[in-house]
Amino acid sequence: MTIDVLGSETTRRQLLTMAAVGGAGLFTMAGAPGAVAQGRGDGTNGKPFRLTVLGTTDLHGNVYNWNYFKDAAYSDSKGNHVGLAKAATLIKAVRAERGADTCITLDAGDTIQGTPLAYYYAKIDPITDGSKHPMAESMNLVGYDAAALGNHEYNYGLDTLRTFESQLNFPLLSANSVDWDTGRPVFRPYVIKTVQVPGSKPVRVGILGLVTPGVAIWDKANVEGRVKFPGIVEQAAVFVPKLKAAGADIVVVSVHSGADTSSSYGDALPYPENAASLMAEQVPDIDAVLVGHAHVEIPQRFVQNAQTGREVLLSEPLYWGMRVTVMDLDLIKVRGQWRVAASSATTLNSNSVPEDAEIATLLQSSHETVRAYVNSVIGSCTEAMSAATSRYEDTAAMDFINLVQAQTVQAGLAGTAGEGLPVLSIAAPFNKSAAIPQGDVTVRDVAGLYIYDNTLLGIVLTGAQVKDYLEQSAAYFKPVPGPGTYPADAVTNAVTERAPKGTPDYNYDIMGGLDARLTYDIDLTQAVGSRITGLSYDGAPIGSTAEFVVAINNYRQSGGGSFPHVTAAPVVYNRQLEIRQLIIDWVTANGTVDPPSFASIDWRLVAGTTPLTITP
Question: Where is the 5'-Nucleotidase C-terminal domain positioned along the sequence (predicted)?
């Protein structure tokens, strides 16, 4: 169905009503239920002037509703669509309904990393060599007023980031990305936009940008000695008064930091990673906050400022362009000065609209170039590798994932307290159909080994904790009475208290060593918790107090699967690099995948000391 997005007023209202997914359940258009005022107003005679702030965040290189690794339209179990092209349709529809001159459009960061489209123009045909970044082109076409930096903006180094900045028609903001020596912001900290009000004085809107301070850890290699990242609350407390002194009537913060105060990856940060609510509570004179980084949907939340007692509006529009935030600030004049009388927010769903035709046409060539890239040959493999049997026997496919993860973490430990510790790695058999063919290998072949968007961390576990971890992993298997031959379904996906419908494959972890072999048996004649036997490293039994760095994905480290010890373990590596891309990069850099050089049988299913035979 084709929707005339910017056609009649009736069509626009129908479209926006269909798209509304948050707030009180209705989109608060002018005149709709829940609205404070109708029309534009001028702030006098009890008729507020409505300022609308539109927001996206965590676009992560998504322009089209497309999954490049599957070479097909994006789909998920919740029916979400992705991409700035769809978000742009919603943005334009709201502007047409409200009046573009009463709308401000912002982004809360993480723009240039996350898809092959973004990677291609950072590494394959880099913008530093003269190409144009698709995210810059599409965001310029949308007409953003400003965007905050996200932590992933630093992934490709400052040269790439500065080039991206130079290609934008709007400012990149970050008040807490500061020079290593002087402490002065190295990007614009804020901008003030003037919004005209018919028959009255204009509204001056101060827009402040902030990024999570975790950049200092995650992209240490790119920023150490050059850029520091003081706390969000601390820098907001410095710059909000500066905005007010510069004449801002209203202050909106675009912050790449989650709403719920936490450090999701256990990093030893001097400041909270997620501090948006804390900032709203502690720093006076903030009127609204566009939240990012946490990849959650918050249509509307209010936080009371501890000093003024005023309610501060927060909203986060999920990620990848799945939603667009719409924040309504109804302004009145008090003693000749604009202030917020009431505010509300909702989110609009991108799956309700078609892609914006202008963006779709503008980026079509880049899109097709990247489709060709993901289907291109990046290396070769000396022997075919399949993950089909990985859930019940040691395979080269899982050994390859563990190899890449362990090598990456080991390299990242250089010069740190973790340098010199033996490195282990865990991987789960996510995708039974994954296979790397003998001969030519494409980007899509490699990506099939790792189908999730997990990032890589390194944590420290003791030998006793490693055994505990493997014991829980072994709960994936059903018991057997003794030696013999068993079909795979008779021994896998055990029903447990944690998994009453059967333990999923992604909660079975296989562990391997890097510089020496980690070996163990899983005895399925024993009770859960007593199945790991012969656990050894480099041919010797593992001591309970020995220390290991374990390469682990962020889902598992943050508690996914409820594995023991990992959430409280010291984090010694976290660059927030996607494991899937790391595997692609490894093949690209090395050219040849040679399974005999890294694959070995390090774990077995046994009954006592007798290996079991498992059939598909």
Answer: 377-566
Cβ atoms of 413 and 421 within 8 Å: the answer is yes
Q: Which phi and psi (to 5°) does residue 89 adopt?
A: -60, -45
Select the CATH number that applies to the domain covering 377-615 from these four: 3.90.180.10, 3.40.50.300, 3.90.780.10, 3.40.50.2300.
Answer: 3.90.780.10
pLDDT tens-digit profile of 215-256? 988 888 889 999 999 999 999 999 999 999 999 999 999 999
CATH 3.40.1390.10 assigned to domain 39-371? The reply is: no
Write out the two tokens for 447: 């990506």
Give start and end residues of each alpha helix (H) in 531-613: 554-557, 579-590
Separation between Cα atoms, residue 91 and residue 353, nearest integer Å: 11
pTM confidence score: 0.84
What is the tens place of the pLDDT at every residue in 495-552?
Answer: 998 888 899 999 999 999 999 999 999 999 999 999 999 999 999 999 999 999 999 9
pLDDT tens per residue across span 372-393: 999 999 999 999 999 999 999 9
Cα–Cα distance between 138 and 111 in angstroms, integer?
A: 11
Inter-residue contact 320 to 295 (CB < 8 Å): no
Distance from C-alpha of 345 to C-alpha of 177, rounded to nearest angstrom: 29
Averaged pLDDT for residues 154-160: 95
Between 60 and 43, the higher pLDDT residue: 60
Domain limits, the chain: 39-371, 377-615
